[in-house]
């Protein structure tokens, strides 16, 4: 696999516009550091500009990504089949606070930025959501983006994490996962947060763009990923170490631009989870969907939902007119998707 390096200062204008858009809806966000969206080329790889985020949500006539949840009288996708699993940190004062921190992983210091809701309740098991940055990005970038636009719509109902990658081929921070070290990092964070905060261990989620999406796919493939559902934006299942031959079902809502040179490998990655979640190859167009209200430059845009998936494990695939960039106006849609579980 021939991986070509990209430098971290890509598409400042596009990413700055993205950060500015988010800052309009939340006083907790700041301006962009100008880092952005490179991606390893490998297997049809691509790199390019970062896009825009935050904005309108989405719904689904078949019950995913809707603003009111889905199946079950209480609006819970699991319809009572997956109980809350409080972590060891529940019922105790919070042992962690918001901000940048480090953790030792097999003798190596790794860093992340954590967001703990100001109204944190030690007796409430929170959703835990990871946001994996692109190649050349950073944890600070993810934080300043409002954790992929999730901070405002989650409204204190989730603990959010922006992990920091490592230098990859001298092209910026990424998720090369050499020897499984980034998987180990993910589990070290999950163990720490579960021990020192009140986390629902049945409701851990990930999203990421480009290299972050590649790692999201790879993490989700592992048998012990603990991921309830994920939302990758333009990735593959090869660059971060491949896709383990596990059988764990994971709900998925994916995004990719139709002009992205990762389009083919991204579609192939989604099919891994179509199979794991027991879906048929038939998919139906969702209406309403995330595509509604997108700017004309992103049209045509379509979201499909695969049929016959295991109960509580939907697979949704959204494609829009764009190159390699963040899914625009996606923050509320990501939260609507994760919050239904």
List keywords for this structure.
341 residues; alpha/beta; Rossmann fold; ten-stranded mixed beta sheet; disordered N terminus
Helices, by number, come to 8
Largest sheet: 10 strands, mixed
State the shape.
Answer: globular
Low confidence ranges: 1-36, 41-77
CATH superfamily: Alpha/Beta hydrolase fold, catalytic domain
The CATH first-level class comes to Alpha Beta
* Class of secondary structure makeup: alpha/beta
H-E order: HEEEHHHEEEHEHEEHEEEH
Oligomeric state of the chains present here: single chain
Helix content: 10-25%
Q: Strand portion, in percent? A: 15-25%
Task: Provide the residue-averaged pLDDT.
Answer: 82
Per DSSP E runs of 2 or more residues, the count of β-strands stands at 12
Total domain count: 1
Radius of gyration of CA atoms, rounded to a whole number: 18 Å
Query: What is the CATH third-level topology name?
Result: Rossmann fold
Outline the structure in words.
The protein has 341 residues and is an alpha/beta fold. The protein has a single domain (12-339), classed as Alpha/Beta hydrolase fold, catalytic domain (Rossmann fold). The chain has eight helices and twelve strands. It has a ten-stranded mixed beta sheet, with helices on both faces. A hairpin with a 5-residue loop joins strand 5 (166-167) and strand 6. It starts with 11 loop residues before the first helix and ends with a helix. Residues 1-36 and 41-77 have low confidence and may be disordered.
């Amino acid at each position: 696999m021939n991986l070509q390096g990209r430098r971290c200062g890509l598409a400042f204008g596009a990413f700055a516009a993205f950060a500015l858009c988010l800052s309009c809806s939340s006083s907790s966000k700041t301006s962009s550091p100008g880092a952005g969206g490179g991606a390893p080329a490998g297997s049809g790889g691509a790199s390019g500009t970062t896009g825009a985020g935050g904005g309108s949500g989405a719904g689904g006539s078949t019950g995913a990504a809707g603003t009111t949840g889905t199946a079950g009288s209480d609006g819970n996708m699991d319809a009572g089949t997956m109980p809350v699993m409080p972590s060891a940190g529940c019922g105790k004062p919070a042992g962690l606070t918001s901000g940048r921190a480090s953790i030792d992983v097999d003798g190596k210091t790794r860093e992340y930025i954590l967001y703990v809701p100001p109204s944190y309740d030690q007796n409430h098991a929170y959703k835990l959501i990871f946001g994996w940055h692109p190649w050349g990005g950073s944890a600070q970038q993810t934080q300043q983006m409002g954790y992929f636009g999730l901070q405002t719509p989650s409204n204190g109902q989730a603990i959010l994490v922006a992990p920091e990658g490592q230098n990859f081929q001298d092209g910026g921070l990424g998720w090369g996962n050499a020897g499984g070290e980034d998987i180990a990092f993910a589990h070290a964070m999950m163990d720490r947060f579960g021990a020192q905060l009140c986390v629902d261990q049945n409701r851990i989620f990930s999203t990421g763009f480009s290299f972050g999406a590649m790692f999201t796919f790879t993490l989700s493939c592992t048998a012990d990923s603990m991921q309830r559902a994920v939302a990758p934006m333009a990735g593959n299942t090869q660059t971060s170490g491949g896709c383990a031959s596990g059988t764990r079902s994971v709900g998925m809502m994916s995004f990719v631009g139709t002009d992205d040179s990762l389009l083919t490998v991204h579609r192939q990655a989604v099919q891994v989870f179509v199979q794991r979640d027991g879906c048929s190859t038939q998919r139906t167009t969702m209406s309403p969907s995330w595509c509604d209200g997108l700017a004309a430059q992103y049209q045509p845009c379509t979201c499909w939902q695969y049929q016959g998936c295991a109960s509580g494990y939907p697979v949704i695939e959204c494609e829009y007119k764009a190159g390699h960039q963040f899914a625009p106006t996606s923050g509320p849609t990501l939260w609507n998707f994760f919050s239904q579980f």
